[in-house]
Amino acid sequence: MDISTLPLSATVRGKLISAGYTSISSLASISSSDLARDLNLLDSEAREILKVAFPVNGMDKVEGSHSIVSGAKNAWDMLHEDEFLTRITTSSADLDNILRGGISCKEVTEIGGVPGIGKTQLGIQLAVNVQIPSHCGGLGGKAVYIDTEGSFMVERALQIAEACVEDMSEYSEFVHKGFQAGQETMQSKDILRNIYYFRACTYTEQIALINHLGSFISEHKDVKIVIIDSVTFHFRQDFDDLALRTRVLGGMALKLMKLAKEFCLAVVLMNQVTTKVVEGSFQLSLALGDSWSHACTNRVILYWNGNERYAYIDKAPSLKPATAAYSVTRRGIRNSESSCKRNKMM
Amino acid sequence: MKPDTLLPANKCTTGCPILDQCLAGGIPCNSVTEIVAESGSGKTQLCLQLSLCAQLPTSLGGLSSSCLYLHTEFPFPFRRLRQLSVSFRSLYGQVFVDSSDPCDNVFVHSLPSVDELLDILPKLESFLVKSKSQLPVGLIVIDSIAALFRSEFENTPGDLKKRSSLFFKISGMLKMLARKFNLAVAVTNQVVDFVGSDNGVNGVRIGNLGCLYSSGRRVCPALGLAWANCVNSRLFLSREDNGVIEGDVGEGGFVCRETKRRLHVVFAPHLPPSSCEFVIRSDGVSGVDR
Question: What's the rounded mean pLDDT across residues A127-138?
Answer without folding.
Answer: 87
